[in-house]
Write a structure and sequence with these properties.
alpha+beta, three-stranded antiparallel sheet, 44% strand, Pnp Oxidase, Chain A, Split_barrel_FMN-bd, oxidoreductase, EC 1.-.-.-, seven-stranded antiparallel sheet, 4 helices
Length: 173
């Protein structure tokens, strides 16, 4: 018989990117840690994010129809914990700025500005589909969460970028 604990343990073994999804509402920044972020489409560029039905951030995104995705990198573990907590002012003590009208955290490895295309209910969550209207990436390895631990997706994250590029070029020929 499938229990919540069995399902939770199964999903704990699946590595997921660690992101902070943000919204701006009345000039006030809001955000939460989200590991259910993924690519949906190339044409148009779209991503998905799942938020719990009771999420205050979900209400703000549904109202403003916009959200930002901050992809954390190595060293972002504490920021992920802060934004996963229940604290009211998660932005206190975290370096950020408004970019394209959304809260962007400093020192992230990726950033996407999204316009909400649709929201689809699914169990105790709502799947948000967003069209990416602006983005950038540093190319650095993203932080992942798997087996209830933070890490990176592979050992190559520790290699110098130039070495990675040479290895990739060699494997293509």
């Amino acid at each position: 018989m499938l229990t919540e604990d069995v399902f939770r343990d199964l999903m704990a073994g699946v590595c997921a990117p660690v992101t902070i999804v943000t919204a701006m509402d009345g000039g006030t920044p809001h955000g939460t840690t989200v590991s259910s972020f993924g690519s949906l489409s190339l044409r148009p560029p779209m991503v998905t994010v799942a938020l719990g039905r009771g999420s205050r951030l979900l209400d703000r995104i549904l109202r403003t129809r916009r959200f930002g995705v901050n992809v954390l990198g190595v060293g972002g573990e504490e920021v992920a914990r802060v934004f996963a907590g229940r604290g009211e002012d998660r932005f206190r003590g975290v370096a950020w700025r408004a970019e394209h009208g959304l809260p962007r955290l400093d020192r992230v490895v990726g950033w996407a500005v999204c316009e909400l295309d649709r929201a689809v209910p699914g169990g105790d969550h709502v799947l948000l589909m967003g069209v990416v209207v602006n983005a950038d990436s540093t190319g650095a390895s993203s932080l992942v969460y798997g087996n209830r631990e933070f890490g990176t997706h592979s050992e190559h994250a520790r290699m110098p970028r130039v070495l990675n590029d040479h290895i990739l070029a060699f494997t293509r020929h």
